[in-house]
Design a protein that fits this description.
It is globular and about 55 Å long. The longest helix has 19 residues. The protein is α/β, with parallel strands linked by helices. Strand 4, helix 7 and strand 5 form a beta-alpha-beta unit. An eight-stranded parallel sheet has the order 1-2-3-4-5-6-7-8, with helices on both faces. The two termini are 22 Å apart. Helix 6 runs parallel beside helix 7.
Length: 387
């Protein structure tokens, strides 16, 4: 990747390393794996054994890689995303990371958001995954932080947030994770109890692909994995306007939103489109207190993976510069997407040729502020100026 000439950062940063926080790191156990199954009541373990889990949601995957994984992520059991110590060895230790935020959308993929199975079984599966992240993964390394995964379309998701945050591992849960699509647009008031709980505990609500329901197309599932993967960026184009125009942020002014693995190059032109729409139809949404772009800049964060790479590498700098100059410089965070095939290391997502101040923000500072995770002293990537 060719980037414009490196710019010298502030002298005050020269002696310290560039702290790293990974905001999209995937454990991938199944409900039948011991680390999850032990937390499911016997009644529902018996049910799963006899009747299965019903129709699975989620997208399509390459048949030769069930978990769309990188080949070296397979552990000694022939599984992927099951061994936290292998994950530490492959990612956290090599890059001397401060933290990795665990995102486990398996709960809503496997349960299809709670469809086609008893509601209490679905709730039990969600709770079991949350317990497994706290016990097995956060217990393996104190650099792991967990997400509270809840079903957006099963009433009572806020109670699972309260259970996790008020439990003995409450400080390990740093965000709430839900599917980016469901039965209704996410701004509808039926979802507001989840937002209220997030605001109460001062943790972000995050959205991670794959979306459930009708999938990114809005009309049905795609035939090809490539089609699904390319359409990830479509999901937030319906999600963000719903939250903004429904008045979510006027009702919850401290709510923070992390948009994970759905791109970010669309944010600036889409903010222009939202403002243009609002300027013509503002009498219809008179409850809004500000322009849509202002809500975007204040309430939303985005992750790097998959990295936006123009056909002409020399234009990459322009993509980042426009994003930053439009007011989103403190809103982009490093994500590896481990253990998937399109995993990015910190050097791939945030090249050394970038200005050091930008690298610091994306690699760790932005996530540190969002999640309240202090960067570890003298940890991370080497500082070019110190070298």
């Amino acid at each position: 990747m060719t980037i414009t000439e490196f710019q010298t950062p502030a002298a005050t940063q020269a002696a310290s390393k560039l702290g790293v926080i990974d905001v999209d790191f995937h454990p991938m156990p199944l409900p039948t794996d011991p680390q999850v199954a032990k937390h499911i009541p016997q009644q529902w373990r018996d049910y799963i054994s006899r009747y299965g889990l019903g129709a699975m949601g989620g997208g399509v995957f390459p048949s030769q890689r069930e978990f769309t994984h990188r080949l070296d992520a397979i552990d000694t059991n022939g599984r992927v995303g099951l061994d936290p110590f292998l994950a530490v060895e492959q990612v956290l230790d090599p890059f001397d990371m401060t933290a990795a935020v665990l995102t486990c959308p398996q709960a809503y993929i496997i349960t299809n958001g709670g469809a086609n199975m008893p509601e209490n079984l679905a709730k039990s599966v969600y709770s079991a995954y949350n317990n497994a992240l706290a016990e097995t993964w956060c217990g393996a390394d104190d650099r792991f932080r967990a997400s509270v995964t809840v079903a957006r379309d099963i009433p009572g998701g806020e109670r699972e947030i309260i259970r996790c945050k008020e439990g003995e591992s409450g400080d390990k849960f740093v965000q709430v994770l839900i599917s980016p699509s469901g039965q209704d647009p996410i701004g509808k008031q039926r979802y507001w109890p989840i937002f209220e709980a997030c605001e109460n505990y001062d943790i972000p609500i995050s959205f991670h692909v794959p979306g459930l329901g009708r999938q990114p197309t809005g009309a049905g599932r795609q035939n090809f994995y490539a089609e699904t993967h390319a359409a990830f960026g479509v999901l937030p184009l319906a999600m963000l306007p719903s939250m903004i125009f429904e008045g979510v942020f006027d009702r919850f002014p401290k709510l923070k939103v992390a948009v994970l693995e759905m791109g970010w190059d669309w944010v600036v032109p889409f903010s222009w489109r939202l403002d243009a729409t609002w300027s013509m139809l503002r009498d219809e949404v008179g409850h809004l207190q500000r322009k849509p772009s202002e809500y975007l800049k204040e309430h939303f964060w985005f992750s790097t993976q998959p990295l936006e790479e123009p056909e002409r590498p020399d234009q990459t700098e322009d993509v980042f510069r426009i994003f930053e100059e439009s007011g989103f410089g403190e809103r982009l965070m490093f994500s590896s997407d481990y253990p998937h095939w399109d995993y990015d290391s910190p050097y791939e997502s945030v090249p050394e040729s970038f200005p050091e101040a930008r690298r610091r923000r994306i690699l760790g500072e932005n996530a540190s502020k969002l999640y309240g995770i202090p960067l570890r002293e003298n940890s991370g990537l080497p500082s070019p100026t110190a070298a």
